[in-house]
Design goal:
CATH superfamily of the largest domain in chain B: P-loop containing nucleotide triphosphate hydrolases
Structural class of chain A: mainly alpha
Number of strands of chain B: 14
Order of helices and strands of chain A: HHHEEHHHHHHHH
CATH architecture of the largest domain in chain B: 3-Layer(aba) Sandwich
Number of domains of chain B: 2
Strand content of chain A: under 5%
Strand content of chain B: 25-35%
Largest sheet of chain A: 2 strands, antiparallel
Helix content of chain A: over 70%
Structural class of chain B: alpha/beta
Distance between the termini of chain A: 26 Å
Shape of chain A: elongated
Oligomer: heterodimer
Strand order of the largest sheet of chain A: 1-2
Number of helices of chain A: 11
Number of strands of chain A: 2
Radius of gyration of chain B: 23 Å
């Protein structure tokens, strides 16, 4: 298959993925907008003024980048895990497996689909945030690159989860018991400077802390960690998960008997 | 040239089920080939391996001389598959399903729309093109799978029980369509439980049982092996005594039905003359069972004994 044909195959998978989440926008785009509105009202408007400033910013301003990042993480992950598992469950993944599409293109199509949803929801949440606070971007390049790389990373995570999943329960275990605790403990609502040194060290094991702080740095210009470390960690995880996903696809784990 | 060439194909599943035990099979270009076998014989495993959905344990497969180990994507580009079970997204429309399928093969969108119109029209689905696939009847879902498999105009089309659960009228129209695309040059491999279907459509036939090919020959030759045919005759007037006719084995099933075995070389006119002499009037006659079906069962029984 020539490069033009491979590109058409890639665009087909990407278009299919984007069409899928746009078709069910009531399940994919709207709920994050509603839940983030509630976060802004409760934590920003009601509780925020009692907390006061955080690292020199209003509490509402401080949590806004983290909440946007939380939406990107959750939605890029859940898009790929639901879509790929759905394709396995309904067996229409076979359409792609029978066709002459390289594994890397199947993976790229699904991952870009997850990134598209993560960024679309991130944008919607940013618009919601503008109703509650002013968002001044400190560094556009960092904001965009961290948003895209984080969406890629969690799309890969969702893909690997879907490969191993055998039931619908299996696609909710990781988001519920691993992802959500890591996100909430990833410095969205607080600065790790507030924690005792032991818990600061523990927090630094959490990769999501680096993504939230890098994104916050891009918007507010403040961070609990070194931005270079954040990029290094994100790239490292992307490389590891990409290799894992390609090996799983190549061996047909979870999709071939 | 062989459209499909399989050498020593073996498959052992994780539960130690030896589904294929060294299958050798060749399908010539342009053939309409039947692959028959009882449930669990290994047909779907074999098709799964050729479709890259099942991993083989051992052996070689080539599609139009493209080895699937070394030229996988080239080999895949020649192949279209209509699986046994429905495997498309229930949330997509018929049009989306076939257009996406063309996209997976790198077909530009404009050409994909032209082909979608052609095949959806030929298979009677054009009016339903914007309907979601889950709203289609069982027969239309099967037609949609055929349309989807043809979008990249494969040189080899494998159909795994394409008419299972389809009503007679629809089945006949699918037969006519498959015959037409075969005449236009597409090699077809068909698995079916309707032996009448294989007899009607296929030029060559292989029978697989317990992971082994037990027969691989032309349909004509296989049918010529049938020595005796059994007919059921409905009588006009009740008969209580079995008529006696020399060299012909007759059985009276009830007072209105006569069963008769007629050797292939026997002139059937002689039977009617004899029955007429004995004042037995026949109002209708029919085959007791499909010829191929009898042969198929005999072959399996011989193998098992």
């Amino acid at each position: 298959m020539g490069s033009n044909r491979i590109f058409i195959a890639f665009l087909t998978i990407l278009r299919k993925e984007v069409t899928r989440f746009l078709r069910i926008w009531g399940q994919t785009i709207l709920p994050p907008a509603v839940s983030m509105t509630l976060y802004f009202i409760i934590f920003g408007n009601l509780i925020g003024p009692r907390i006061g400033s955080m690292n020199g910013f209003l509490y509402m301003e401080f949590i806004a980048p983290g909440l946007i990042m939380m939406s990107i993480i959750n939605n890029s992950y859940s898009n790929v895990v639901a879509s790929f598992f759905g394709a396995k469950f309904q067996r229409h993944i076979e359409e792609m497996l029978i066709a002459p599409i390289p594994d890397s293109i199947i993976l790229a199509g699904y991952i870009l689909g997850g990134v598209a949803r993560g960024l679309a929801v991130g944008l919607v949440v940013t618009v919601v945030a503008l109703f509650f606070t002013e968002v001044h971007i400190h560094n556009y390049l960092i904001v965009i690159s961290v948003a895209i790389l984080t969406a890629v990373l969690f799309s890969l995570g969702g893909f690997i989860n879907a490969v191993f999943a055998r039931t619908f329960d299996d696609i909710s275990i990781i988001p519920t018991f691993v992802l959500t605790p890591l996100i909430y403990l990833g410095g969205i609502f607080y600065s790790i400077d507030m924690l005792p040194s032991f818990w600061q060290s523990i927090s630094k094991i959490n990769p999501i802390l680096y993504m939230v702080n890098a994104f916050r740095y891009g918007i507010l210009g403040i961070s609990d960690i070194n931005i270079a470390y954040a990029f290094a960690i994100i790239f490292l995880f992307i490389i590891i998960l990409t290799i894992c996903a390609l090996v799983l696809l190549n061996k047909g784990i979870g999709i071939k008997s | 040239m062989f459209a499909l060439e399989i050498n020593q194909l073996q498959k052992i599943y994780k539960n130690n089920l030896h589904a294929l035990k060294g299958v050798d099979l060749c399908v010539k270009e342009g053939d309409f080939f039947a692959l028959l076998g009882p449930n669990g014989a290994g047909k779907s495993t074999l098709i799964g391996i050729v479709s890259s959905l099942v991993r083989k344990t051992h052996g070689q497969i080539s599609i139009f001389e493209q080895n699937m180990d070394t030229q996988l994507n080239k080999a895949k580009s020649y192949l279209g598959v209509v699986p046994q079970e429905v495997n498309f997204s229930f949330w997509e429309s018929c049009m989306e399903i076939v257009i996406n399928q063309a996209g997976y093969y790198g077909i530009p969108r404009k050409l994909a729309y032209d082909r979608a119109e052609k095949y959806l029209t030929q298979l009677g689905l054009w009016e339903k093109r914007n309907d979601r696939s889950r709203t289609l009847s069982g027969g239309l879902k099967r037609r949609l799978m055929i349309a989807r498999a043809l979008m990249h105009e494969p040189k080899l089309l494998i159909l795994d029980e394409p008419t299972a659960g389809v009503d007679v009228e629809l089945r006949r129209s699918m037969w006519a369509f498959l015959k037409e695309i075969n005449l236009m040059g597409t090699t077809i491999v068909l698995t079916t439980h309707y032996l009448e279907e294989a007899e009607h459509l296929c030029k060559n036939i292989a029978i697989i049982d317990k992971g082994n090919i037990i027969e691989d020959t032309s349909m004509k030759y296989l049918l010529s092996k049938i020595g005796t045919q059994t007919y059921l005759m409905d009588l006009k007037i009740p008969c209580n005594e079995l008529p006696k006719i020399q060299n012909i084995n007759l059985r009276l099933l009830d007072s209105m039905t006569l069963e008769v075995d007629i050797p292939k070389e026997q002139n059937i006119n002689e039977l009617f003359v004899q029955l007429n002499h004995q004042n037995i009037d026949i109002c209708s006659i029919r085959n007791k069972s499909n010829r191929l079906e009898e042969l198929f069962i005999n072959l399996l029984n011989n193998k098992n004994n």
